Amino acid sequence: MDIGIVGLPNVGKSTLFNALANANAEVASYPFCTINPQIGRVAVADERLQKLGELLKPEKLTPSSIQFIDIAGLVKGASQGEGLGNQFLGHIREVDAIAHVVRFFASENVAHVDGKLNPLSDVGVIETELALADLETVEKRKEKTLRQLKTGKPEYKEELAELERLRELLGQGIKPKETPLTSQLQLLSAKPCIYIANMDENQIIKPEAVPFYSEFVAYAAENKTQVIPICADLERGLIELSAEEKNEYFQALGLSYQSSLDLLIAKSYDLLDLITFYTVKGPETRAWTIKRGTKAPQAAGKVHSDMEEGFIKAEVVAFNALLEAGSFNQAKEIGSVRIEGKDYTIQDGDVVLFRFRA
User: Fold this and answer.
1) What percent of the chain has pLDDT over 90?
2) What is the pTM of this model?
3) DSSP code of residue 91
4) What is the model's pLDDT at position 83?
5) What CA–CA distance (Å, rounded) separates 192 from 177?
6) Which residues contact 210 (CB under 8 A, 6 or more apart)?
7) Higher pLDDT, 273 or 258
């Protein structure tokens, strides 16, 4: 899963990326400090995996991971190439979801690209540029579909109707829902999105009192999008501390500490409708991330393509049932392990042993 970190220049994208990925992307107070996308792969914190490790004591415990991509700041006119906009928009097309960083902090040392702080206006700039880029994509596809209409095939008539509907929605500033066609076209406006409200250390103590925040949350709710308040600068500064030390620091501020990374990943899983299953074969116990609704053979293919092609069956036990049994073999003996075939849909928390023809 790839999450693209986007926003205007100088809103704290690279600082957030460094905090999340424990990376060292260049951070500066001028626009376009980031030109090429920075990529960081991060292990997903997983309490169930840790409990499986304690129970089964494998030689290797491997969590699933998520990839964050720090994409350079977009500016007004990006859809027409301003600020290397075409290049940066192309980077966004490749991600599964967007973490849109919005600036709430004020700073004399970090210039605002428009000279004034206005989160709603900032979001409007980015979303307008994404919509304009999508309109261009839709128009190009429409020209092609009109030519294909001459074949008389009904699917092209249906596609043209959907393209007209997308054109109307984008023209009205309405985000289209994800469909097979929007995915095929890689429409930017249709990608799942989370807003990151980037605040300073004083603001994060009481986000609801921060100027513009209430209006921003209401705007996000109208667009069925969630807001996560984060102090990226603080998270970056605490990155070397242990969990216990971070708890102590936040308690001094009157807050309970929750990793911004863990929170963002949890929200991203909900946003993309992802679940986790586990394999316990041999010396390794491992977590895997898949879309909800994935069938057993396709889940096996996540482990190895040969396992999907030669899939025979899956031996499945629920996470809680395995904990109660104490081992996979004991779970078999008491009847907690089920034999499932090709039509079985993997459930969140399933522990699976795949059987396949090599």
Assistant:
1) 50
2) 0.82
3) H
4) 43
5) 9
6) 104, 197, 199, 203, 229
7) 273
